[in-house]
Design a protein that fits this description.
It is a single chain. By secondary structure, the protein is mainly alpha-helical. Among the domains are: 154 residues, Methane Monooxygenase Hydroxylase, Chain G, domain 1 (Up-down Bundle); 60 residues, Alpha-Beta Plaits (2-Layer Sandwich). The strands form 2 sheets. A 3-stranded antiparallel β-sheet has the order 1-2-3, covered by helices on one side. It has a 3-stranded antiparallel β-sheet with strand order 4-6-5. Strand 5 and strand 6 form a beta hairpin. The radius of gyration is 35 Å and the shape is elongated. The termini are far apart.
């Protein structure tokens, strides 16, 4: 119920993961239509980059201000940190606090004076500011490390290598927030070089019991996982897309003009194929390098036709082989009969 610094950085990581999900699915999906020259009506969706900027901006971000409070001389408390947030983030649309200079949340009794609230992608979360400064510092006093390093026990000495006088670094160690921010940045950079696949798990209830479906809980998860925007983009767009060459190679057996070999460009072959099958024009579009199919039922129809055609081809191959085998056996028997008859006539 009381969210502190730990939950804050966890939610920050969730925001960054949601951001990369948006960029790699919704944004990339719509950009592909534009890139392929497909007629497309842009679908509005919420981009949580503004929330990530509120947390990680190098000048006005919450983590940057927290580090600044930890490093500045003088009396530093959680209250001074909250006061700084109230000054810098007072007008931000996703930041809420009982600030003195802004009357937006002055009478909000659900928001204590020692807390601030962030409107995350998944919903509003209130953070208790107490402990933010100490947990962000996460410092071990240098003289304590040196004392542990001088211990006779080898394990204790190995656990505190920073206490070695030969390796003393007078530079202030990085804060917990800055370390976590750097780790998240490394993770995002790594994910952007991959081709990720997403599995969205939805809990039907909080009791971990069978045959219980909590509609409110499921709807909440669908909203904060971004599934609504994803479904809207998918339904407004095309469910399947594939380059012309592999598409023609897979379905060319369904058309006499493209089977067994098509001599022209792959796009022309796909056009001939779809016209021959009588697929409605509104069900597909031709991009610069790919064929786009709107409805999954069209794809299922193609797969069913291909499956039936494969069975027909297998039957044809089997029929020709059996005919060849029987004819070969017949010709061999006929040849043998001629030989036997000729020898018999010669003998008689």
């Amino acid at each position: 119920q009381d969210n502190s610094f730990e939950q804050f950085i966890i939610n920050y990581c969730n925001e960054k993961l949601q951001q990369i999900f948006i960029e790699l699915t919704l944004k990339e999906e719509q950009e592909e239509y534009i890139r392929e020259g497909i007629e497309w009506t842009h679908i509005e969706y919420f981009n949580n980059a503004v929330i990530c900027d509120l947390i990680e901006n190098n000048q006005t971000g919450i983590l940057a201000m927290l580090d600044e409070e930890c490093l500045r001389p003088g009396t530093v408390t959680d209250d001074t940190f909250l006061e700084k947030l109230n000054q810098v983030c007072a007008t931000h649309q996703h930041f809420e606090s009982r600030m003195s200079k802004c009357s937006r949340f002055l009478n909000d009794t659900s928001l204590p004076h020692s807390c601030f609230r962030i409107q995350h992608y998944a919903g509003k979360v209130m953070y208790q500011v107490e402990g933010f400064v100490d947990k962000n510092n996460d410092l071990l006093y240098r003289d304590l490390s040196q004392a542990m390093w001088k211990a006779n026990h080898s394990l204790i000495k190995a656990l505190f290598p920073e206490g070695n006088p030969a390796k003393i670094n007078l530079k202030r160690p990085p804060t917990a927030g800055s370390q976590f921010k750097a780790s998240v940045a490394t993770l995002m950079k790594n994910l952007q070089t991959k081709n990720p696949n997403y599995i969205r798990c939805i809990k039907p209830n909080d009791k971990k019991a069978a045959h219980i479906f909590n509609e409110a809980l499921v709807c909440h998860q669908i909203r904060y996982l971004g599934l609504l925007e994803n479904v809207r983009v998918r339904r407004a767009g095309y469910a399947f897309r594939q380059p012309y060459e592999p598409c023609l190679e897979r379905y060319k057996m369904l058309c006499k003009q493209t089977w067994p070999h098509w001599r022209g460009p792959a796009r022309a072959g796909v056009e001939v194929l779809f016209n021959e099958l009588g697929i409605p024009e509104e069900e597909f579009s031709f991009g610069r390098s790919k064929i786009f199919i709107r409805n999954p039922r069209t794809l299922f129809k193609l797969e069913d036709l291909r499956k039936q055609r494969l069975e027909d081809l297998a039957t044809l191959i089997e029929k020709i082989y059996r005919g060849w085998k029987c004819r070969t056996r017949f010709l061999l028997m006929k040849k043998c009969q001629v030989v036997i008859a000729s020898w018999y006539r010669r003998y008689s």
